[in-house]
Design goal:
alpha+beta; four-stranded antiparallel β-sheet; three-stranded antiparallel β-sheet; 8 helices; about 55% helix
């Protein structure tokens, strides 16, 4: 058919196919369908109708609901406004959804890694019990040993406990008590963070569903701004963190970005209760571990 009528491009051929045109049809029926199509193409009617996430301007009616115009300028104006509106709507939706899915992936990875870490902490030995066992068997521990086998009265069995050979058994017990305290804090912090991330995953999924169903650009922007998904340009820079910020075991850690930033961190944001760190004998960032009560 394209060889017979070269001006019939893929769009016109596709239109004929939707109308049931096939090469095996009766020749008269094929000629009638082609003639009907030529009449439509010669008739000055312009159709604008939705296709996927955009709109199409055509000389042929589509299967979907179409607006039709006799004036080409009027048709072009309508087509441009609809195309422009859908283009920016889909661009905004795409940007927001990509950002949310990136956050979603990070949160899911954090949950998986934190659950694994939590399991290791819970099954990695009870440091308080080790301290108690050492204190109950001080007389049986020879100085200078890096491990000792003692009776575990918690489980009625022997247990091998690692020791620091250069300190006394009492100091080793103190180390285990300190580890037990830190272990408890870390477990509580991980459990709290995991719950928060699970809630965040649920919220992110809800946001994605809402955005996907939005059909109004103005309302979409209002929704994004209201929920902190986008910021006004003049606010974005001011809300950027001054320093690199990390959290570990409930402690906030601030890290300078450059020499000037280092001085600001130390002298403006540092207090005597904070722990100040710096790599020895080399250039690097100033680091503050902010004081936590208790």
């Amino acid at each position: 058919l394209r060889e017979m009528i070269p001006s019939f491009d893929k769009n016109i051929l596709k239109y004929l196919e939707t109308k049931g045109f096939t090469n095996s049809m009766n020749l008269k029926i094929k000629k009638d369908m082609v003639n009907d199509t030529l009449i439509l193409l010669d008739d000055p009617v312009f159709y604008v109708y939705p296709v996927k996430d955009t709109v199409k301007l055509s000389l042929l009616p589509g299967d979907l609901e179409a607006r039709h115009f006799a004036d080409p300028v009027e048709a072009l104006n309508y087509f441009y406004l609809e195309y422009h509106k859908l283009y920016w709507l889909n661009k905004e939706k795409g940007t927001l959804i990509r950002m949310l899915r990136k956050q979603l992936k990070k949160s899911k990875n954090y949950i998986a890694n934190s659950k694994e870490k939590l399991e290791n902490l819970k099954t990695g030995g009870n440091f308080k019990q080790y301290g108690d066992i050492i204190m109950a068997n001080l007389h049986a521990i020879q100085p200078g040993k890096d491990k000792v086998e003692l009776f575990d009265f918690y489980h009625n069995d022997n247990v091998i406990i690692k020791l620091k050979a250069n300190i006394s058994p009492q100091k080793n017990a103190e180390n285990y008590y300190r580890k037990a305290k830190n272990q408890k804090i870390e477990i509580q912090t991980l459990e709290k963070n995991i719950r928060a991330r699970i809630n965040q995953v649920q919220q992110l999924n809800e946001f994605i569903e809402i955005i996907e169903n939005h059909n109004d650009l103005k309302q979409l922007k209002i929704f994004a701004l209201k929920n902190g998904l986008s910021k006004k340009e003049n606010q974005a820079e001011s809300q950027k963190p001054i320093f690199k910020v990390y959290e570990y075991m409930g402690f906030q850690i601030l890290v300078g970005r450059n020499a000037r930033n280092n001085d600001e961190l130390t002298f403006k944001y540092g207090y005597k209760e904070d722990l100040w760190l710096h790599a020895k004998d080399v250039k690097g960032s100033h680091v503050l571990i902010k004081y936590q009560s208790g």
